[in-house]
Amino acid sequence: MLSSSGDSRDAGDDARVLFVPPAVRIPLAEFSFTFARSGGPGGQNVNKVNSKAVMRWRVFESPSLDERVRVRFVEQNRHRMTDAGDFLLTSQRFRDQPKNIQDCYDKLREMLARAVAQPKRRKATRPTAGSRRRRLTDKRQRSAAKQLRRRPADD
What we know:
With 155 residues, the chain is α+β, with helices and mostly antiparallel strands. The chain has a single domain, classed as 2-Layer Sandwich (Double Stranded RNA Binding Domain), CATH 3.30.160. The protein is 33% helix and 17% strand. It has 3 helices and 5 strands, in the order ββββαβαα. The chain has helices spanning 67-76, 97-116, 129-149, and strands spanning 17-20, 24-27, 31-36, 52-58, 86-91. The strands form 2 sheets. Strands 3-4-5 form a 3-stranded antiparallel beta sheet. A hairpin with a 3-residue loop joins strand 1 (17-20) and strand 2. 14% of the residues are buried.
């Protein structure tokens, strides 16, 4: 299932990895899954089948991530981190475990792709002379309009 999309390479069960372009490869053995009952409607299966997938990943112990990517990833997803440093991700979109596991991998791939992308540094800019002039003209006009609303001073 993972290797058919070309996003994960498959060279045996132990060598399976989650591939995030351009260069992040994480062995699937780093992820652990637990399963729970999904919420919401589900008919007869809702109280019997543990189809909700809960992925747990020790991000700080993963040798697969570059330190800069790790820092960005944790910063972007700090609400999903536990106090112990585990990253938690859940999926209950589908009614069977394998599809929810695949959905967790897809969600994680998108999050990692965002963390891998180097943010552009902002160039400091200054207001143009025209924009400064317009701002001050508007400010004078507002001030004049407010002064006209005031009660005349008694002399």
